[in-house]
Amino acid sequence: MNFSDKLKELRLKNNETQQELASKLNISFQSISKWEKGLNLPSIDLMKELAKHYDVSLDYLLDNKEEVKKEYKEHFVEYHPVVNKASSFSIFLEKDKLYPSRLASGRFRTDAEHNHRASDDINSYVIAVDSNGKIIYMALGTGHGKGSPCDPFYHRKDIIEAKNLDCFHLLDSYRPFRDGLNPLGYMDFEFIIPKEGFVITISNNAFEKRTLLSFLLKGNNLLNGGMHELINGHIDSQYLFKPGDLDDFTLSFNDGVLRISYTENEEDVIKDRLDNKVLNEMFKKFIKLNKKEIINMIKEEILESLDDRFSELEDQINEAMEYAEEAKCIAEDALAEVEEK
To answer: Does 315 reside within a domain?
Structure first.
């Protein structure tokens, strides 16, 4: 039994109409209708809501079999950043103790010129990793309005928690930035390397940034403009990741190799399976078309495009004719004035 049949069966057993189910999910009943007809599939979040609503597993909804063997894979990427020296892609190790903190005794920092920055490059992403290899901080342009404890960054929930992160050392005179004002003491803090951890700095223009952030996204947002903006623009990490999104990842650095890895969880497996289902359904619909139907589809697209272009040209011609007529009237008036004189 496929998903559409299972959904309809569960809904009818629960004595619900499509409209009633749609209201509970805060969507239109047309969406429910499309799901039950096999024309579309819900998102992973809506799948989870359906599973919870009908008290069944996600596996049951997505697979033809009642039970599915769970196989969780490990995924990883590896890089070779420059060690303990500013570059487009660098790593600063606390264990090497090269750059003593200027404000905190016994602590160490990167080679950035300013206390409140991990990198002097305003276009750098900064990632702080603790002794367990977990990301505790991530932001674009540390110290440029997005790097202090009061500013938004990945994993920040509130000012108290942010101030206690092991990548910040705050002086007693520190005062948070509020309501667009720079109070005295706003910069009275230092960005330091977490104990037994490390800090990664990577320029927004670095090639590795694209693959690294894409990997951290686990392939999400590949089908929308978010990934395009991520790769080609300046997107801060608090807009990409919710608190906890990166908890699955472990980072380590050994023998010059930075390794970032995660093991799939159930949601990753379900999402991948759901994406594959959507692609498979699209593929099945496409291969059912014969050569004549495909040619007709292409012709329709071409004709529609040509119609639009012809309409644009017609509008431009009409506009040009109006300007010409107006110019003619102006010229005739000017000529009449000359003749009168």
So the answer is: no
pLDDT at 138: 87
| Helix 44-54 vs helix 3-13: crossing angle, to nearest 10 | 40
Q: How far apart are the first and last CA of the chain?
A: 93
Does some domain include residue 65? yes
Rounded Cα–Cα distance for residues 143 and 86 (Å): 16
Domain encompassing residue 51: 3-70
Q: Stretch 321-326: mean pLDDT, rounded?
A: 77
- Asked if residue 99 and residue 42 are part of one domain, the reply reads no
**What is the rounded CA–CA span in Å between residue 13 and residue 179?**
54
Whether 131 and 216 have beta carbons less than 8 Å apart is answered as no
- Tens of pLDDT along 114-172? 888 899 888 888 999 999 999 998 887 665 555 667 766 776 556 667 778 899 998 88
Q: Are 143 and 127 in contact (CB under 8 A)?
A: no
Q: Both 122 and 86 in a single domain? A: yes
pLDDT at 104 over 60: yes
Structure tokens belonging to residue 294: 């495909």
**Of 226, 261, 296, which closes a domain?**
261
Confidence band for 230, pLDDT divided at 50, 70 and 90:
very low
Give every CB contact of residue 184 below 8 A, 6+ residues apart in sequence: 173, 175
Same domain, 245 and 149: yes
Place of tokens 């010059």: 256
The total of structural domains in the chain comes to: 2
What is the rounded distance in angstroms from the CA atom of residue 323 to the CA atom of residue 166? 68
For position 48, which CATH number holds? 1.10.260.40
Are residues 85 and 62 located together in one domain of the fold? Answer: no
Mean pLDDT of 268-274: 58
Does one domain contain both 91 and 238? yes
> pLDDT tens digits for 22-37?
888 888 888 888 888 8
User: Hey, how many other C-beta atoms are within 10 angstroms of the C-beta on 259?
Assistant: 14
